[in-house]
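Researcher: Sit down with what I've pasted below and flag anything odd:
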Amino acid sequence: MKFESMNSSVWTKGNTLKSVLLFILHFFILIIITAVLLLHDHFSDLTAMMKAHGANYLYMFFCVLLLTWIMYFYFFFEDRKVLFSARNIALVFTILDAYIILSFLLGEWIHIYARPVALVALLTFVLLGRRDAIFMNIISALMMFVIDHFSGREFASHNEIYSSLIISFSAGMIAIFFGDKAKTRFQIVGIGAFIVLPIDLIIFLLGLCELINAEIQTTQLPVFDDVLMRMGYGLFGGIMSAVIFLAVLPVFESMFNCLTAFRLRELTSPDARVLKKLKEQAPGTFNHSMMVAQLAEACATAIGEDVDCARAAAFYHDVGKMHNPEYFTENQGDYNVHDELTPELSADMIRSHAKEGYQLIRAHRLPQFLSDVAVQHHGTLPIRYFYAKALKMTDGELNIEDFSYVGPKPQTKIAAIIMIADASEAVVRSLSKRTPEATEKAVRDIIEERMELDQFSECDITMAELTKIRQALVASLTGVYHHRVKYPQLKYKHANGKTTGENL
């Protein structure tokens, strides 16, 4: 479940050439890794090995080449955003390379059934998405089968190699189908335990077939013990799929700066470094961000966007205010610094927080998506308060662009949600009467103003979705700022004759 911005959605011949060259480069890296694994202990008699297995190795080479180009055409037609970035292409091949290395070593050192058969499926599902995970699971299973079958190394029987193909495919698919239900790292271990069932069932049925074909009764303990041992290796492989996934996922998240559901929860925890600084340096902004996060969750749920992503974007959208927190209303006390500044300078200070938020997030090597939302959540909107103040101080005409945010406009639906939720929370908080009718009008006015100013022209949000967002915001804000009964002041008479009052 990866969330990553795209700086361009236009595919050019240059993109095609770049992606093709990168695929060729990574293909040869994959071939080199495979050759080292197969021949590392035969370099002294390499000529003899090539005479004995040269034809098999050549066939293996073309099979891996074919599967690599099938991968390319899949991403070209089905998920082209992967090809926009060299980092994404490297991510796909790094997952595949790591799986082949681990599978080969565990297959030789322990047993073919001890491999982490669901590792590619789990990593690709979390980092890229379900559809890509299904495809890469098929590719990895076929690629490992080709390497096993034509390697010339006798570490498993033909039956075990063929059953390993079915096990890899089945275990990976089950891990993908149940991946959405895993919201914590511990639940991932549960998936690893669950995929042991089909793995061991396949191993048991294969062992049973071998016993029946050999006309040996299953009551003969030594032979049946061998089946149980294989099932034990299958148990190891299933659990290790989850364990290795949990061990390497943070590495992939850091290396490729990926935004996953697990990392999102870590980034939105109270102990997150940037959020702790925000709470200390700009407590008003921090509380505002927490409220916007609640609203963004409701909006994301209403239109089917990722709730975790919306929450994280809301938490970080105003972190740029940490540089000069006293310039923003929510952090001010009785003294307003803008009373001593010109409207032009005040507007510069206010709009700078979007760019500074972007730079701060990038400096901490946080995901690109968060920095994009930080710089986009005000779009190119005018800062009306200081524009109106400047108009009162001059008789001439003013360029409203000098009092507007520099953009860009929201590029994603979640950026649009943050834009609307951010303004709605601030406006409704300032209302003297927060009735459902007043709240509904305020939110409607905010959305209509942004539509009139063409703020949603660069994202694919629809009118129907904007209506759902408005309804979700009105329901949430009405629930937060609901009418409270005014409690009477009560007086209590104590035994010592004193009277105290308490306003509940």
